[in-house]
Amino acid sequence: MTTVRITRTALTRDTLAALSGLLAGFAALTVAELVSAAVRPEASPVTAVGGAAIDRTPAGVKDWAIRNFGENDKFVLQLGIVVTLALFAVVVGLLALRHRRTGSAAVLVFGVVGAASAVSRPDSTGVVDGLPSLVGAVAGAVLLYVLVGRLTRPRRIAGEEQDDESGWDRRGFLIAATAAAAASTAAGAVGRTLNGRSAQDAVASREAVMLPAPASPARPIPAGAQLRVPGLPSFTTPNDTFYRVDTALVIPKVDANSWRLRIHGEGVRRDLEFTYQDLLDRPLIEREITLCCVSNEVGGPYIGHARWIGVRLADLLKEAGVKPPSRGGKADQIIARSVDGMTLGTPVEDVMDGRDAMLAVGMNGEPLPFVNGFPVRMLVPGLYGYVSACKWIEDIELTTFDAYDAYWVKRKWAREAPIKTQSRIDTPKPFGRPEAGTVMVAGVAWAQHRGIEKVEIRVDDGPWKPAQLAEQATADTWRQWTYPWKATPGGHTLTVRATDGTGETQTEKRTKTVPDGASGWHSVVVTVD
User: How many CB atoms lie within 10 A of CB 491?
Assistant: First the structure.
């Protein structure tokens, strides 16, 4: 009976030691959250470690995550961090049961990793960003030391040897664990509330925005640009379904009243600084522009269309004295910096060649949503987003491609990335089972800043047949198309290709998204009943 009792006690103590580790980890996180309210929300350990993990992830792995998890990739990353921390906490708790000081001190590893991640982020404000993780780790270490102390059986009590069943402070442990859980929960709640205050100011500033009428309004979308075919996306993508691909674990919420934009650097005759109201007071342009992410695979979903309103970027650069390289300008690259430290590099020549590059303040008739870059984002038609579409922008530096590599270029993506001519079949869906007879094949094609001139469909290995094109709104928008297919029973492969406004037909050659965007023809396999 004594052996059974000791074994059961050992198992109970191991379980409670593991629980002690989890409580210590929870306390470390919540205390760090509370301290981050006095520093800045971005310095909290999960955000900092997650951001550092994204920064150090190879381009191929990032692309795999986007391909498999889509816009949930950041949630998966955060979940992975929490699970890893939980496993680490369990191990540390078990270690502390046998080596109390060593196990408790091991919690400090959490603080070192979090602090190092926070201060190494591009948007770090200095060593103070490491405080939340360090203070949280100290709190977790102390708590683990106290809790494990309640599980350590004294050799003698009142001069008598005690057995393992009654020799440790069960009641004291339960009281301490319950108090720790309650205090940690309260600390986390207070931290989230304090961190949310700045977000509330940002929300209020957005709600107060009244976008002025554009001095140069967009032309109406032609009635024939939207085809009435089930399965086709809307020509204009609603704001709440517009794709999102970025590295921000937490969406920046910037108060428009305190936001500033600086233009400076090589070839700038005088530095300029603008407030949000400064931009609203300038003549605004309104344009229909389709955006596409470089991570979009052939036939992929990371493309969307919106009506944007903003300030022509070339006008601001000219005021600063900037000239394009073709006119003797010193700088050939714009480095756009986001409030979260992201950097994007854009060719100066493309911004100043007459296209509608802008600093956008509005999207589909309303101020930019936070997820899409409020208060201001950059857009350059014809270029993939990673070299042109900086969200939450706050700084524009003129430099050269030889002098500076932006965030994605350092990770082996191309310096310059014009959007490739692409097309997609939206209906019928892959592995669909349409009935024999006339089946309407339909989709979209795009080649921003060049436009779409022709779309062709091939059934199996047959000849290419021209599709019927919807009206094209502008050369900077996608274009819908249809093809009435006389479908016969059996399995078939449908393939699409497009020709852009320069007469160039998209290549059949399949390439991956890295380093400058995917290429190849999109195909779907269907079975006709």
Answer: 10
Distance, CA of 112 to CA of 234 (rounded, Å): 49
Give which of 467, 465, 462, 454 is closest to 427, Cα–Cα: 467
Distance CA 373, CA 251 (A): 9
Q: What is the pTM of this model?
A: 0.83
First to last CA, the chain: 72
Contact 25, 98 (CB under 8 A): no
Count of other CB atoms within 10 angstroms of residue 462? 10
CB 211 within 8 A of CB 280: yes
What digits encode the pLDDT tens for the residues 195-213?
887 789 999 999 999 999 9
Q: What is the pLDDT of residues 4-56, one digit of tens each?
A: 444 445 558 888 999 999 999 999 999 999 999 889 888 888 888 877 777 77
Q: What is the DSSP letter of 354?
A: S
Scan for tokens 């006709």, then name that residue. 528
**What would the two tokens of residue 250 be?**
């937490």
Amino acid present at 74:
K
Under DSSP, the state recorded for 391 is: S
